Amino acid sequence: MLTGRKVTDIDSAQSAASELLTQGVGCAIIKLGERGAVLAQGGSSLHIPAFQVRAVDTTAAGDAFAGGLAAAIMERKTIGEACVFASAVAALSVEKPGAETSMPTRADVDEFLRARSQ
Fold this sequence. Notes:
Layout: H1 10-22, E1 27-31, E2 37-41, E3 44-48, H2 61-74, H3 79-93, H4 106-116
Antiparallel strand pairs: 1-2, 2-3
Helix pairs in contact: 2-3, 3-4
């Protein structure tokens, strides 16, 4: 909505994110659900793939991503690292039904990321 561009895939998300940068935004993150997210800053963009999980309920995935992103930024992770962390939080949240009840613990997220980095 902010760019007037229809976001339907990774390429259109990168285009919209780049447009946000031209509007004066320092960093733009466009979430694409099961296709991941696009991060744009400093004139470049990066696609961050979603973790592949068995989704049961996607009700709180966006909130989980936002919370994970905020937590990672508060821990002074880079914005790229924060997006990966947020993606892991969102992935874990869709594996359980409900909203509040689907939020993973920090230990769950750390173990999830550890298992996927091997």
